[in-house]
Amino acid sequence: MTDARETATQAAPAPVPLLEPREGIPPVTASPDALADIVAAFAAGSGPVAIDAERASGYRYGQRAYLVQLRRAGAGTALIDPVGCPDLSTLGAALDGAEWVLHAATQDLPCLEETGMRPARLFDTELAGRLAGFPRVGLGAMVENVLGYALEKGHSAVDWSTRPLPEPWLHYAALDVELLVDLRDALEAELREQGKLDWALEEFAAIAAAPPPAPRVDPWRRTSGMHKVRRRRQIAVVRELWNTRDRVARERDVSPGRVLTDAAIVAAALDSPLNVHALAVLPGFGHRMGRRQLEQWQAAIDRARALPDRELPQPGPSFTGPPPPRAWADKDPAAAARLSAARASVSALAEELNLPQENLITPDTVRRLCWEPPAEISPEAVSAILSGLGARPWQVGLVTVPLTAALAVEGPVQAPQ
């Protein structure tokens, strides 16, 4: 079996800079008439379709696409502006049945679906790289290690909502799909040689069939620095400030962090200022913030302060899963022993197969199995639980036997970290 990690670290010629798209930079498609021409061209093309999307993370509210790039044999490269062409369902219909090639598909699929595009089949070059054992799976690293070309990556974090888009950015965007199908073909060959292609195809099918992610419950609990906030009244301040910030950010279409930082929210929760004068001296509420802004944040704090105790949020989110692993040794020493043995067996198998442990089986699946094992330990029972928790058939086939053995382990162990 080829060791992609070893191959990637072997001495190799310097990568060749990829300077220009083969047909040059195409014009940006921003009107229905121009989109109709693109739809016709890509419907007449052949083979897989390379697709990428650029968002304005850190600048705009939400994760909508501000540029969609495509490339297909017989059609060339297209750059589409979803602001001018917000409905791309006709393009999605034209590509129905074609295999989409994306890098880190789960990042781009939600914003593409907002435009009316969803693949029936896909090939994820990042996930393929993980399964093949490559140590670095970013697009630039994969193109360099697998194809020997160097991609420019200088514009990945720019504000893609800018209009008009500067030509250097369009140049970068076009090159992102230039070699994506070539990378797909090389990785397919690598996976086939390693005997992992069927595993990858199962993963790709699961991604394509997955429903849109459900909205997070209590997203305000993910405020950075939240672990410092202990009292329920302070937690209520975080909730009120977060919700107010989210409303303002949505109305202004800007990233919430540009309205008010997480650090400022936590500082206000810990201090709980009584008026705007006290609020203004806290980090993140400085002299650049106007009186009206300060008043809206103080009003949120005052609302939290006025809540009756019964309406205060609980310190931690409610969940039905097992407790944090560090608590297992005290709560259930036998479960802690099972988890320690299961982790060791998964780690050893992942090393043998040359792929990341989390791709072999998710840590959450292992924890849930070890916390609530079947009444009678058997490969059949373990396999059924793994499948019920969402493990793919290839994963179930590989980990069932070692995890069944791990569930039989007994005895006190140190708390898993």
Give the averaged pLDDT, no decimals.
Answer: 93
Distance between the termini: 32 Å
Overall number of strands: 8
Number of helices: 20
- The CATH homologous superfamily of the largest domain is named Ribonuclease H-like superfamily/Ribonuclease H
Beta-strand percentage?
Answer: 5-15%
Shape: flat
Domain HRDC: 231-311
Protein name: Ribonuclease D
GO molecular function: 3'-5' exonuclease activity; nucleic acid binding; nucleotide binding
InterPro entries: 3'-5'_exonuclease_dom (IPR002562), Exo_C (IPR041605), HRDC-like_sf (IPR010997), HRDC_dom (IPR002121), HRDC_dom_sf (IPR044876), RNase_D-like (IPR051086), RNaseH-like_sf (IPR012337), RNaseH_sf (IPR036397)
Describe the structure.
With 417 residues, this protein is of the alpha/beta class. It folds into 3 domains: 206 residues, Nucleotidyltransferase, domain 5; 93 residues, HRDC domain (DNA polymerase, domain 1, Orthogonal Bundle), CATH 1.10.150; 83 residues, DNA polymerase, domain 1. Helices cover 50% and strands 9% of the residues. The strands form 2 sheets. The chain has a 6-stranded mixed beta sheet, with helices on both faces. Helix 4 links the parallel strand 6 and strand 7. Helix 5 packs parallel to helix 8 and helix 19 crosses helix 20. The longest helix is centred in the middle third of the chain and has 21 residues. It is flat. 36% of the residues are buried. The mean pLDDT is 93. It holds the Pfam family HRDC. GO terms for molecular function: 3'-5' exonuclease activity; nucleic acid binding; nucleotide binding. It comes from Actinacidiphila oryziradicis.
